[in-house]
Structure formats: C-alpha cells, structure tokens
What we know:
50% helix; alpha+beta; single chain
Amino acid sequence: xxxxxxxxxxxxxxxxxxxxxxxxxxxxxxxxxxxxxxxxxxxxxxxxxxxxxxxxxxxxxxxxxxxxxxxxxxxxxxxxxxxxxxxxxxxxxxxxxxxxxxxxxxxxxxxxxxxxxxxxxxxxxxxxxxxxxxxxxxxxxxxxxxxxxxxxxxxxxxxxxxxxxxxxxxxxxxxxxxxxxxxxxxxxxxxxxxxxxxxxxxxxxxxxxxxxxxxxxxxxxxxxxxxxxxxxxxxxxxxxxxxxxxxxxxxxxxxxxxxxxxxxxxxxxxxxxxxxxxxxxxxxxxxxxxxxxxxxxxxxxxxxxxxxxxxxxxxxxxxxxxxxxxxxxxxxxxxxxxxxxxxxxxxxxxxxxxxxxxxxxxxxxxxxxxxxxxxxxxxxxxxxxxxxxxxxxxxxxxxxxxxxxxxxxxxxxxxxxxxxxxxxxxxxxxxxxxx
Length: 435
C-alpha cells in the first residue's frame, strides 16, 4: 500500500503539489477562524434551573420546590446527573448532560419539562433557566466609579442602563450585576397602630400592590372627538405610597402614613463586593456564550462600553477589574514565540547536521504545512487555540522533524544502493546525510 502511494505521488507530482497547497491554504483559513482563549473549556455540559421563593427556609424550599422539580426533570434524554441544592429563599438544580449533547437542544428539553412541573409548585413560584454560559465563561469584570454618587445610585445605573446595553453585544450570554444596593420603597408598619385601627397586615400589602398600577378605561366621544380614558396609578415617590388608603376607622379613611412610615432603602444583602481593600464597588460580570471566541467577544464589549460611556452621568466612568484578553494575548504570544524559536532552531540544526539543502528544505517545508493542517483538525473537534493545544503542537514538531529525517535518510540510502548513472552523486549526498 505504501509503495503504491509513493509510486502514485512520484508519477503525479503536480497533483500532489496542488493537494498540499490546498491543504496549506485550508489550514491558514482554519487558523484565522479558530477561537482563541487562554485556557481550554473542560467544564461539564450543564443546564441550571434557578427558583426563588423569598423568605422560605431551606427545608421548605427542599420539600416544595427542589424535590418536585428534581422528580419531574428525571428521565430527560441524554441526562447523566440531576443535582439539587436548597438554601434560604432559593433553589438550584444542575442537570449534567452527555458531552455530545447540543446545549441548546438540552435547554429546550428542560423548558418542556418545566412547563409541566410548574403545576406542582406553590402559587407565584416560577423556575427559570440560567444563562447559556460555561464554568469559564466569566471573561470580563468591570466596576463603575463616580464621585458624589452613592452605591444605590450606581447600582441603579448599572441595572437599568449599562446592563441592558452590554447584553446586546454578540456572544454575551448575561451581564451579572454585583455590589451596591438595589433601590426599594420600604414601608415600616407599627403593629400597635394596626391593632388600634383593626387593619390586618395583609390589607396593607394588597393596598400597596393594587395601587401601583395603571388601569384602562374606554373610548369616550364628545362632539365628534374621541377621548381615551385611563387611570394613572403608578407610584412615583414615597408620598404617593403614604397617601394610599388601607381602610376606614369611624367613617374616616386610614392611610399608610397613619400606621407607619415610608422611606427609600436598599434590598437585604447577603454579602458585599470589596475592590482591592479600598471599599465597596458596583459593577458587572460579562458571561460568554458557549463556543464563542473569547478574544472577539471582549473586543466587542470594550467597543460597546465606549458607546455606553457617552451616556453616563458626569463623573461616572468604567474601570476594568478583570480582563481575560490580556491573559489570552500574553499566553498566545508566549506560545507563538516558543513555536517560532523552535522552528528556527530546528532549521539551523537540520542544515548543520544534514549539510544538504534539498534534504533540509523537505523538512522545513513540512513543518508549516503540518502545523496549518493541525488547525483544520482543531476546528473540526471544536478545540480552541489555548495554552494546552498550542503546547501540544510545539511538542509535536520534534516528532515531525525526527520522522522526516528518518524518511529522507532512508530515501537517500535506497537511491545510493540502486545501480545506474548519477549513483556517485547520490552516494556523496548519502554520506552527507549519514554523517
């Protein structure tokens, strides 16, 4: 088989050259399209289901949320493991799929099961699917800095302006906010006053909920002019909440201001985010989607941040806390430098030891072609250009050179043993090779 392949190649040299050049060009294209990252993504193929039920203990969450969901999510095709975790007010379920399973197909199957599992959950409890990112998808962290702005104002700016703008960047799965205070209108009720006016706490909750709403009316025509009637009832400030009626006492309406106080505050926090020991900070985490080019996504995020910065209030600016593109470029630069140094060293060694430029050219031509073809295989297998894959290519260069030297030397030995004109020249070349 090998003899037939060699014979075919010798008889069709032009065809072999065209084939090799085509593979080399294909490899160059694959090299330009291969995603770049600092580290390989070896995380599991998983889908996360998150459910929030505020104020409930971990045991209640386990019995009424986690257990029903885990029971219904069992048996999904290609699922290896279903893990559930319950904590105060929250439930997390991790579904681990087979590595060959498409992650978006898996997310669709999970959504189908959640539709039926919703019926077994308490009223008002709705499970949601986590972002389509991997365990190494946190590619960029930033914070917001602004003199004269408190943590609540910066968090509001992050949640209602910056976050929505950055989520439009292609390849971004989620922008997770952290730090600061989430703004709330907090009603502090005096239980003694509620008892005095004989008003249940549930009536206060219902009154606040029902009075924060716009209602629609109907179309009214007067003198051939149509008017749309609607009631505007959205809460705009604390005084609007204080004026909400919650009951009647001795024919006198009772308002929220009569039984308590209203103030602006922040949501209950389970932790804080401190930046370099200099105090609390507000910012966001960019989470990348599956099978995306981390370097390109980070570049697009930075370009979008420049646009968003134009709309920020005066004195507020972005500050980079973590940028994986720096690690990516430094790692790839280091590995590429080592790769070029090794190719140069091998070229010098081959020329010195073989002392035959035609033999050396065979080896030197084979190295870039083999490296280019390897990126075709990397793309086919979904492997990124990272420290591990590029280091493997570096280690393989030694094997490529060794095999080529053995084949070239073997070819010249056979040519020297063959009788015929020009044998003396081939013998001299063989002497140089074996030396």
